[in-house]
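Lab notebook, bench 4. Still working through the backlog of constructs that have no structural model yet. Next entry is a single chain of 251 residues. Request: give me the C-alpha cells for it.
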Amino acid sequence: MNDFQPYSYTDSVTADRPWLASLVGVQDTNTITLDLTKFTEGTHYVKSANPALQGRNVMKSGIPLGKVTASGLYAPYSGPRSEVQTVTITGGPTGGTYTLTFSGQTTAAIPYNATATQVKTALEALSNINPGDVAVSGGPHPGTAIVVTFGGQYLGEDVTQMTATGSLTGGTSPAVAVTTTTAGGGASASDGTEVLHGFLVSEISFNPGSTKAAGALLWYGEIYAEDCPIPFDPTDVASTAPGVNFHYRTR
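Model written out:
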C-alpha cells in the first residue's frame, strides 16, 4: 500500500521544527518517496494525537535520510553505529545496590530494582557524561536488563565498556554485569543509507498499513544538529550525496 497524501508546511521556523536553523534551502526541496518499512514507531514516527488525523501516523520532521541503492527509496540515514551496552542483574536479589564505572568515573549507588530513568540520571551525573549522551531503555531491574545507548559526544564512537560493582542482597548469588551489545563506530549499513542525502523538511502523516509515502527532502541549509529527532553528529558523517551541503550551528 502506498500513501501519497498531500502535505504542506509554513515558511517559518516554528516550535515543531527546532532543528531548522534558518529558512535557507527550504524553498528548494526535492520530492522523494519514503520506504516506510525502514522506519521505526516511537523513534521516527508516532501515532497522531490530532483528532483530524485519527488512526494515522505522523513522521517526525528533521530525520536524517539516506537513499536505498536497490530501490531508490529513502530511509533513515545509517551513519556510524552507536555503542549499545546492556546491564544485567542475575540471581534474583531482593535488596542492595550497584554502581557503574565509565572511563574512570563511578556513579552513585543505583538501587537493585532501578528503572531506566534512575540509571540514566546516575550516568548523567558523571563528569564525563552530559545530558543527551546516553539513551536508556528497558528495566526495571532485577527482572529486566537495562540498555544504554551512547549518543551526543559519543555518537558513532567505540566507547570503553562500563564495568559494574554490586552490593546486592537476597536471592541466590546475585550479580550485576555489563556486556557490549553493539560496538560503536563504522557504518551501520551498506545499502546506500550510509550516505547522507538530507533531512525530512516537514512532518508527514500516513496510514499504518502504508509502505510508501511522499515527503520533501531538504538537501542544503542550516541545521541545529543537536535538535534533530534522531541522534546526529555532523562530525561523524563520512559521506554525503553530490550537491548536499549543510552548515551546522549550535545554540
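Notes after review: The chain has two domains: 2-79+189-248, 84-182. The radius of gyration is 21 Å. Flag for follow-up if needed.
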